[in-house]
Design goal:
Blueprint (H helix, E strand, L loop, with lengths): L4 E4 L1 H17 L3 H16 L7 E2 L10 E4 L5 E8 L2 E9 L14
Parallel strand pairs: 1-5
Antiparallel strand pairs: 2-3, 3-4, 4-5
Helix pairs in contact: 1-2
């Protein structure tokens, strides 16, 4: 299978920046580690057959999938559109589940 290009939405980028800032305030260097984990996840998305899993609620009908970070309680919520994987949200596992569903509309 051919790898698809990956795009990060403005909203997801903002969520990453906010989370990294919060983690950095908690412990110096932790925000940078979060950004590194995000960048590694993007690299995985750029490979053929990335390790995505379907989301577990009504947004699954739209084809939304997620890539779960291992060391942080976040997922990259993705949707495939126009030969690209779009990261629509950088979602915390315990905060506002499914808040990003409105972003799935074409």
């Amino acid at each position: 299978m051919i790898a698809l290009r990956v795009r990060v939405s403005r909203e997801a980028a903002t969520e990453l920046e906010e989370a990294a800032s919060w983690y950095e305030q908690e412990e110096v260097g932790l925000g940078e580690r979060l950004i590194n984990a995000f960048e590694q996840a993007i690299e995985l998305l750029e490979e053929p057959n990335p390790p995505l899993v379907p989301v577990t609620h009504s947004a699954a009908e739209s084809g939304a999938k997620q890539l779960i970070l291992h060391r942080f309680p976040f997922s990259l919520v993705t949707i495939e559109r126009n030969q690209a994987i779009i990261v629509v949200a950088f979602a915390h596992h315990s905060r506002k589940p499914g808040y990003w569903r409105r972003r799935l509309s074409p």
